[in-house]
Amino acid sequence: MPNVLEASIDIAAAPEQVWGVVSDLQRIREFSPNTLRMQPLGRTVRTGTWTVNLNKAEGYVYPSTSRIVRFEPNHALAFRMNENGTVWSYTLEPTADGGTKLIQRRDVPKGKLPGWLQFTVDKVFGGEAAFEGGLVAGMNETLGRIKETLER
């Protein structure tokens, strides 16, 4: 399993505008085909904030929790999934034309998924290639929807 999955897109909007969408975690359900809800716990989102999430994959709906591990306004947001240790992130890079390159990544910091998840990927989701292909497709769909929203 690769340690990093990544997708990116150029958006004709300033980083501050992109950040306004990406950092509003309750809006992720508008963009992600796999996230039904992401609810931050507490009044403000910052490094250390916990979230309670509801996700879907291949007809399954399941809860998860995460913790914000990086929160740099107008630049980067990352959260670690508590159940499996993966880190999902958005990085914003200004482009020469005043727009933003938005990068979404999934990192596996320990180099492999926990055994229970690897078993699930193999037996339920059709193996690594199919599972990871679905994740990358979801990332591209998410980024495309964010772009469409901001360029409207």
TrEMBL record:
InterPro entries tied to this protein: Polyketide_cyclase/dehydratase, START-like_dom_sf
Q: Which range is the signal sequence, renumbered to this chain?
A: none
| Pfam families for the chain | Polyketide_cyc2
Protein name according to UniProt: SRPBCC family protein
The organism of origin for this protein: Nocardia tengchongensis
